[in-house]
Design brief:
Distance between the termini: 55 Å
Structural class: alpha+beta
Largest sheet: 6 strands, mixed
CATH class of the largest domain: Alpha Beta
Strand content: 15-25%
CATH architecture of the largest domain: 2-Layer Sandwich
Radius of gyration: 23 Å
Length: 418
């Protein structure tokens, strides 16, 4: 059970405090309810761009990292399709330094053509290095576009293409900031060793005067049910073929989310999983194969990915995968197997919560989902998944019409490189 205090400032900022006196550290975590799903399809990558811009200086703090370093702390950020998260971890006595710098960049960034140009170049270079010039780097770009036709999950957080960032104007960037990065669109979590009364005072001091803003209403077109199998085959300069299969799954708040997660664990969590035992050790079909979920707020994807061995064909690999999926859909698994993946999942979550940072991030995320207290219900929800639910979910999930398949082919060595 994670104990916490929650309240709101008049400007709409949600504040969550989790006190842990066993550590000398404190974490200040700010999560904004904005991700790549909130972008204009013709101007993608803005949420990720802001992950960089927020470190480029704010109204009164020209060098964010220097302040953190002087305070003996460390910081980082991440963006995904749904949220953007920033955190600072530092000695508890320097809490105010973190509140000062986080409030300042919530107030206003040091917008300039020079800063924007620097971060545009950084993001475009990241796009090229990680997604376009790296083996298998564009696989998820292709798979998302194949699986989603209308929902903004069809593009990765990095965006659809580098040109969208390269052409981003200062005016457009400012508009995106003031439409999403606001106290009334954020959750502030402080976790660690702090003194409550003083922390309340400091939060009011640094965040209380920031005005609320007109946050852009979210009007996302939901993805229609997929009614036919889709496939795409591409040739790339890679060392071996790769196979990717994406099945549409439920959203993060759906009761069947937990069964879906456990199905992925039965298939591929650890060396005793079905995929490792059957597809790698026994049948020698893959050099590596995995199953995992994209647990996004809106309906996400259940993804199976693997690299077949050189002498193995796609049809025999897919047949072997489908045979294991059918075992799930017919209930051909033991109660012990289900209990084992439940225990592993719950143990992994408890291990994550051993540190203040992960607790801070999860408290913020569940508050974005609706209520931070849902964090304490996770263990029971996994525990309560039963055999019948697993079978029912698998039967719906692994419908061939619900699948998008990407065949990522090793380019013929006799063909000229592009």
């Amino acid at each position: 059970m994670i104990d916490f205090e929650k309240y709101h400032l008049p400007n709409g900022l949600r504040v969550i405090l989790h006190r842990d006196t066993t550590t000398p550290m404190v974490v200040v975590n700010v999560m904004y309810d904005v991700g790549s799903r909130d972008e204009n399809p013709q101007k993608t990558g803005f949420a990720h761009l802001f992950e960089h811009l927020m470190f480029g200086g704010s109204l009164n703090v020209p060098e964010y990292d220097r302040v953190v370093q002087k305070a003996g702390g460390e910081n980082n950020a991440f963006t995904n399709n749904d949220i953007t998260n920033y955190y600072v971890s530092l000695p508890a006595e320097n809490l105010e330094a973190a509140l000062w710098i986080e409030s300042d960049r919530m107030l206003e960034l040091a917008f300039s053509e020079k800063s924007l140009e620097v971060q545009r170049n950084v993001v475009v270079e990241e796009f090229n290095q990680r997604y376009l010039n790296q083996p298998y780097g564009d696989a998820m770009l292709l798979l998302r576009e194949l699986a989603y036709r209308v929902h903004p999950y069809q593009w990765n957080t990095i965006g659809k293409k580098p040109e969208h960032i390269r052409q981003a104007s200062l005016k457009e960037v400012k508009e995106f900031f003031y439409s999403h990065y606001a106290p009334n669109n954020a959750v502030l979590v402080i976790a660690g060793n702090f003194e409550p009364d003083n922390t309340h005072r400091l939060i009011e001091k640094w965040f209380g005067s920031i005005g609320s803003r007109d946050v852009s209403p979210r009007n996302i077109v939901q993805e229609p049910v997929q009614t036919e199998a889709r496939s795409l085959s591409v040739d790339r300069d890679v060392p071996q073929n790769a196979l990717y299969k994406a099945y549409h799954m439920v959203n993060r708040l759906h009761p069947d989310y937990y069964a879906t997660d456990l199905i992925s664990d039965i298939l591929s969590n650890g060396r005793s999983s079905w995929f490792f035992e059957k597809l790698i050790k026994e049948q020698h079909l893959f050099s590596e194969v995995d199953a995992y979920i994209v647990g996004s707020i809106d309906p996400g994807l259940f993804i199976i990915s693997g690299k077949p061995l050189p002498d193995r064909s796609y049809p025999e690999c897919e047949t072997a995968i489908e045979q294991l999926l059918q075992r799930i859909t017919t209930g051909d698994f033991t109660d012990r197997e289900l209990e084992k993946v439940k225990n592993r999942c719950i143990a992994a979550r408890k291990l994550e919560w051993a540190g203040a940072l992960n607790k801070a991030i999860d408290l913020a995320y569940f508050e974005i989902l609706g209520d931070a207290s849902m964090m304490n219900e996770e263990e029971d929800k996994y525990r309560n998944v039963n055999r019948d639910q697993i079978v029912r979910v698998a039967q719906s999930l692994f419908d061939k019409k619900n699948c998008s398949t990407l065949y990522y082919n090793k380019k013929n060595p006799h063909e000229p490189l592009p």
